[in-house]
Amino acid sequence: MKQIFLALATSTVLFACHNSADQAAIEAAKQEAVDSVTTANAIKQQVIDSMKEVKAAARERHAAVASQSSSANTYSSEAPATTTTTTKKKGWSHTAKGAVVGAGAGAITGAIVNPDHVKGAAIGTLIGAGVGAGTGAIVDHAKKKKEANQ
Predict the structure, then answer these.
(1) Is the dihedral of CA 32, 34, 40, 43 positive or negative?
(2) Cα 102 to chain centroid, rounded
């Protein structure tokens, strides 16, 4: 019994002494991690600051251009024309809309159906975009034909 107690006490002392060296290494690693995170945050802040500077410079340029155009209109001797022309705002064609919607629907369907979700999504995207673009092209052609007949 005495031998077991002595062995237990010796091993406890040895492990306790060994633990302090590990503790110092752990503290050093913690400090190193904190330093690297601090450095990363400083770099991120520099990027944010530079983007704010670029945005402010763009605003200043925009304000300068706006003030120049308004001053040019003030000094012109000609009266502005009062004719108004209505231009139809061009949006997405049915072909483009069909391709986008088909690609999205195909990606979702392919990811659900195929056991390899990524491969299924890629294949579904391609097939869906093709079918959607084809359908949109048919609709575009029909609209052009209808406008030509009117």
Answers:
(1) negative
(2) 22
